[in-house]
């Protein structure tokens, strides 16, 4: 390959379809073999044309890879990734990403920029919607599932190259403001932020994306420590690394690169293989190599990484797509999307067992800006899913229970500030037995560049809820949003609260089945839910501090609006006006039954590094309905060479029991899994005392302890 051809492989360009921006200049470049990949080309005619030009007319006949953000479905849209994380069910995630791959590859897309693996501890950050939540263990389990699902058999026509992004620290944006700096000390980086990415390498992910942010002063896209020392040398990754959109040239405003040539030099030397959209590599690598600033062997390594992936994808044997649009929105895909939406829904409150509702004998007033908003319920990062296929809550309920259902949006959209439809909403509410208010955030209020400083319900939704509450009827609040929404001001107004995230194409039927009791809710929070955004960042696996606010000093403030509460918990770590507890803890979620945990035992009291801790306990469904419990196991390493979190998730499993049924449940925890990156920068299990819990969330459950010697 000539120097130009090699450099061409490192270039990923965006273009639109034929006749709409595909320039002669780009076509000529493809013909000369000087482009490696395209993003966001989706029409079959253009894809075929470009691929044919590359394969049949360029000197080496190297195929292109067509990439796209296929984040939570291609046509059939699944719940947003944060919602998928709330299922605590990796099997569903694998199925969903397989379906996304089947639909996208049928359109010629063989590379998705997903999964996003950024640990997110701050709900103000708009991209928390795309994240697996705050926990590295849960995130790693989902990573494995996503990659298996997306890639399948990578060399087959439905294999879609996955991309672990954003490497790394993007979710730690200071203040939750998108693109902001990340300051993460080395132990925290290894023990939390890198974990899902290492799981991605172990799962055989074929590509990585460097993140927009700087990490401890060095932009990720020019960060040798991340891209070479950790990714290649420590983890042995042999796939390709692509930049984020213009993130090579954005190192100039970061104040790290002086100009585009300098940016190209820094990225190439750091080990970044492919540049997305900006053209610093195309414009400057030749000169940098010819003048000896970059060794040609560096470029050879980059090109090898790219070609190795293309080979693994079978693109040389089968460069063309057999377009098959008949599988879009296939019935099986819709069934799977519905099941994922069902399992993602978290029941946060169910006062007096208001839910499930008796739709046959009750008059229901359905109100709210998200009750019938086909586009909004799909959520962020939906390029290809069409809202005409969305089934909303209103559609599903009126189809099933038309005569008992009255509907009035009340507010045209979530940010609406007009009260002109309040009267109509109040009118139907007055005639009803139960009010369902479906509110939340429009799709555009979360996702990239959509951070919020105040994460209350936007617009005047609270005002409408207060007015409805004055009628004295029971209220079910359904929240559809890309993040936890602070609801302290309206918590007492709602009798039941369901978090439905942005549930996707099949959100309506999924909610219907939960509301009518056909199925019991089984979603659990993958993220800590704050009382007020002033508590952010807030996460369960925090450190204890020298002055923790303790249970003894804790005054329950659940029933008191945040602003009205002013009390001191002494010289402990807390807020005068928000205490120290979240609104709902990580792992929390109710169902239509109750579960009792009892008889917890461990197989031994002390263990060596080679052992496994065998935890056994009895789980009983003590309620009146069949339901699924998400059993969670947490450990605390009580002292360490660096301080350790108060609890860390080390396992979970879903157990479904009939009413009254009991089961002995066991879980095997290899002691080796307790290792952490310690003060000496080594992965070790430090001998000492450990606490262990099994329970329904990170704050409750049975406790035991053991020693590692
Ligand atoms: C920027 C986003 O940060 C990234 O996640 C996405 O894949 C690219 N744009 C391409 O659309």
Automatic annotation (TrEMBL):
The name this protein goes by in its record: beta-glucosidase
Q: Where is the composition biased (Polar residues)?
A: 8-18
One Pfam family linked to the record: Glyco_hydro_3_C
Task: Please report the stretch or stretches of sequence annotated as the Fibronectin type III-like domain.
Answer: 629-698
Catalytic activity entry: Hydrolysis of terminal, non-reducing beta-D-glucosyl residues with release of beta-D-glucose
- GO terms of molecular function: beta-glucosidase activity
Which biological process, per GO, is one annotated for this protein? glucan catabolic process
EC no.? 3.2.1.21
Q: What is the phylogenetic placement of the source species in the record?
A: Bacteria, Pseudomonadati, Bacteroidota, Cytophagia, Cytophagales
Q: Where is this region: Disordered?
A: 1-20
User: What top-level class of enzyme does the UniProt entry assign?
Assistant: hydrolase
Q: Which SUPFAM superfamilies match?
A: (Trans)glycosidases (SSF51445), Beta-D-glucan exohydrolase, C-terminal domain (SSF52279)
The entry's family comment says: Belongs to the glycosyl hydrolase 3 family.
Alphabetized, the UniProt keywords read: Glycosidase, Hydrolase, Signal
Q: Where is the signal peptide?
A: none
Keyword Membrane (UniProt):
no
Cross-referenced SMART domains: Fn3_like
């Amino acid at each position: 390959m000539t120097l130009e051809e090699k450099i061409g492989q490192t270039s990923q360009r965006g273009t639109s379809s034929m006749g709409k921006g595909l320039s002669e200049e780009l076509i000529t470049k493809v013909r000369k073999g000087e482009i490696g990949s395209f993003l966001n080309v989706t029409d079959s005619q253009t894809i075929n044309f470009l691929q044919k030009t590359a394969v049949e007319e360029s000197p080496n006949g190297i195929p292109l890879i067509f990439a796209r953000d296929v984040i939570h479905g291609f046509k059939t849209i699944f719940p947003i990734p944060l919602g998928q994380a709330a299922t605590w069910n990796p099997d569903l995630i694998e199925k969903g990403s397989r379906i996304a791959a089947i639909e996208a590859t049928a359109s010629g897309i063989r590379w998705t920029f997903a999964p996003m693996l950024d640990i997110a501890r701050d709900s103000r950050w708009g991209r928390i919607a795309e994240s697996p939540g705050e926990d590295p263990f849960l995130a790693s389990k989902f990573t494995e599932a996503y990659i298996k699902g997306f890639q399948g058999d990578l060399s087959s026509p439905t294999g879609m190259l996955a991309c672990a992004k954003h490497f790394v620290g993007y979710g730690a944006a200071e203040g939750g403001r998108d693109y902001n700096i990340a300051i993460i000390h080395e132990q925290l980086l290894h023990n939390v932020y890198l974990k899902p990415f290492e799981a991605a390498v172990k799962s055989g992910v074929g590509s990585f994306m460097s993140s927009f942010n700087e990490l401890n002063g060095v932009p990720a896209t020019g960060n040798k420590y991340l891209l070479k020392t950790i990714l290649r040398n420590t983890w042995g990754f042999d796939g390709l690394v692509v930049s984020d959109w213009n993130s090579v040239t954005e190192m100039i405003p970061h104040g790290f690169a002086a100009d585009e040539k300098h940016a190209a030099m820094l990225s190439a030397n750091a080990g970044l293989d492919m540049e997305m959209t900006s053209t610093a590599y195309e414009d400057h690598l030749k000169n940098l190599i010819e003048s000896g600033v970059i060794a040609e062997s560096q470029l050879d390594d980059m090109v090898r990484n790219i070609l190795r992936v293309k080979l693994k994808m079978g693109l040389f044997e089968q460069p063309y797509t057999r377009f098959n649009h008949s599988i879009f929105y296939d019935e099986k895909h819709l069934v799977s999307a519905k099941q994922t939406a069902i399992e993602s829904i978290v029941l946060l409150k169910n006062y007096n067992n208001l839910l499930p509702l008796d739709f046959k004998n009750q008059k229901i007033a359905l109100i709210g800006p998200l009750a019938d908003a086909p586009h909004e319920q799909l959520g962020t990062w939906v390029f290809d899913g069409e809202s005409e296929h969305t089934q909303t809550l209103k559609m599903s309920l009126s189809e099933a229970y038309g005569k008992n259902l009255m509907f009035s949006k009340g507010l045209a959209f979530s940010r609406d500030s007009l009260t002109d439809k309040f009267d109509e909403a109040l009118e139907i509410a007055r005639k009803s037995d139960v009010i369902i208010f479906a509110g939340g955030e429009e799709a555009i209020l979360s996702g990239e560049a959509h951070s919020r400083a105040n994460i209350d319900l936007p617009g005047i939704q609270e005002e409408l809820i207060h007015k409805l509450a004055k009628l004295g009827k029971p209220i079910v609040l359904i929240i559809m949003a890309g993040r936890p929404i602070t609801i302290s001001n309206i918590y007492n107004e709602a009798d039941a609260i369901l978090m439905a995230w942005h549930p996707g194409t099949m959100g309506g039927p999924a909610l219907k089945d939960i509301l009518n009791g056909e199925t019991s809710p089984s979603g659990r929070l993958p993220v800590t839910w704050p009382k007020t955004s002033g508590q952010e960042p807030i996460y369960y696996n925090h450190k204890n501090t020298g002055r923790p606010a303790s249970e003894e000093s804790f005054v329950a403030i659940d029933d008191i609006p945040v602003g009205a509460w002013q009390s001191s918990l002494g010289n402990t770590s807390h807020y005068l006006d928000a205490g120290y507890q979240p609104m709902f803890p990580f792992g929390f979620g109710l169902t239509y039954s109750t579960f009792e945990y009892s008889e917890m035992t461990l197989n031994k009291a002390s263990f060596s590094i080679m052992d496994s801790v065998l935890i056994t306990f009895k789980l009983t469904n003590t309620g009146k309905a069949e339901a699924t419990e998400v059993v969670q196991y947490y450990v605390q390493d009580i002292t360490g060479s660096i301080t350790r979190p108060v609890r860390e998730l080390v396992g979970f499993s879903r157990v479904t029991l009939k009413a009254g049924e009991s089961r002995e449940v066991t879980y095997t925890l290899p002691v080796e899994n307790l290792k952490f990156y310690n003060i000496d920068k080594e992965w070790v299990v430090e001998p000492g005392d450990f606490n262990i819990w099994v329970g329904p969330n990170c704050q409750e459950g049975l406790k035991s302890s053991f020693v590692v010697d």
